[in-house]
Amino acid sequence: MANILKHNLSSKYLEAASLLSPRKQRQRIVAYVESYDDIAFWRTLLSEFENEDYYFSVMLPCNDSLAKGKKVALTNLMTPSQLGHHLIACVDSDYDFLLQGATHTSKFMNESPFVLQTYAYAIESYHCYAESLRELCVRATLNDRFVMDFPKFFKRYSEIIYPLFIWNVYFYRQHDTNTFTMHDFNNTTTLRVVDIKNTQKMFERLEHDVNVRLHRLENRHSSHRSKVKELEKKLIPLGLLPENTYLYIQGHHLHDNVVMKLLNQVCTMLRREREDEIKRLATHSKQFQNEMTCYENSQAPVALMLKKNEDYKSLFLYQWMREDVRNLMEQLRK
Fold it and tell me: How wide is the angle at C-alpha 136 spanned by C-alphas 127 and 253, nearest 5°?
C-alpha cells in the first residue's frame, strides 16, 4: 500500500513538473537601437509583446566596438544575410518617415517589416509630449499648483512654426539640404524670449522670426509655392497637422531649446513657492531647516525626470508603433 501511494505521488510530481517545464525554448528577437538612451524607451514598448514563445533583447548594434547610431543599427538589416525574423532595428524616424522613400534610407525604413521607427522625430519627442509635462513638473517639485497649460502652449507653438516646417521638409524631399537647412529652421524656432508669465510676448517674437524667414523663402522660391502646398496635403495622412508640428521637429532642438527652457522656469517658480510656504509656516529655525532638508531631498532634477518620462502612451504615434510590433509578432506565428 505504501509503495502504491509512493508511486502515485511520484507520478503526480513528474506530471506537475512536466507541465511547469517549457515544452520548447523561447526564441530570442534581437532589437538593435541607436544609443544607451534608446534602450529603456524601446524595452518599454517591446516588453508588452513578449510571451511564452518569444522575448526581446534590446542592445546596441555592435558587439565588438562602441560604434552606435542609426546608420550602424540599420546596416545590420541592410545586409541580406542578416535579415530574418530574429533581428530587427528600432530607430528614430528623424525626417525619414516624412520623406516617404525620397532617399535610400527612408525607402528601406518605410518598407522593411523588420524596422520599427518612432514616426515622431525621435524618442525625445515622446519624452516632451505636451500632455505629460504638468505631471512631470509635479513629480519634480512636489507642488501641484497649476502654472502653465502645456498642451495649449505647444498647440500655438506648432501652429506658428508649421508653415516654415513644411518648407524645410520640402527641400529635404528634393535632396536639397543646403537651401533651408535644419539648422536654419532650428535657429528660427528657438524660444529666445522665455517668460512663462507672458506667453503672448514669447509667441509674438517667435511669430516675427518665423514670418521673416517664411517671406524670404516664398519670395526667393515663388515657383515652389504650389508644390509646397501639395506636400502639405500629402503629409496629413502621416499625422502632421498644424497643431502637433512640435512632435516632428528635431528632438534635441525641441528638448534643449524649447521644452527645457519652459520646464526650468516653471519648476523654479513651483520650488520657490513651496520654499516660501515652508518658511512662512515654520515656527522656529530648527523646524525650518529640517523641513527644507526634507523637501530638498524629495525633489528630483527636472532634466532627469524628462529623460525618464514615460507618460506618452496615449499619443497616437505610440499606438502606431504598437501596431507595428503587433504585426511583427503575427508574422512570427506564420
Answer: 35
Distance CA 62, CA 65 (A): 6
- What's the grid cell of residue 167? 518648407
- Residue 90, strand partner residues: 33, 116
Encode pLDDT of 84-137 as tens digits. Answer: 558 899 999 999 999 999 999 999 999 988 899 999 999 999 999 999 999 999
Dihedral angle, C-alpha 170, 210, 158, 263, nearest 10 °: 130
Secondary structure (3-state) at 41: helix
Helix (H, G, I), strand (E, B) or coil at 32: strand
Q: How far is CA 294 from the centre of its chain?
A: 33
Render 198-254 in DSSP notation, one character per residue.
-HHHHHHHHHHHHHHHHHHHHHHTGGGHHHHHHHHHHHGGGT--GGGGGGTS-HHHH
Minimal CA–CA distance to 110: which of 238, 240, 244, 247?
Answer: 238
Q: What is the side-by-side order of every strand in the sheet holding 115-117? A: 54-59, 27-33, 87-91, 115-117
Considering only CA atoms, which of 246, 249, 288, 292 is closest in space to residue 271?
292
- pLDDT tens digits, one per residue of 219-268: 999 999 999 999 999 999 999 999 999 999 999 999 999 999 999 999 99
Nearest CA among 40, 38, 43 for reference residue 70: 38
CA distance 274 to 141: 8
Residue 152 DSSP class: H
| Helix/strand/coil for 68 | coil
Task: Report residue 271 as a C-alpha cell.
Answer: 520650488
Cα 64 to the center of its chain, rounded Å = 28
The rounded distance, in Å, linking the Cα atoms of 229 and 72 is 35
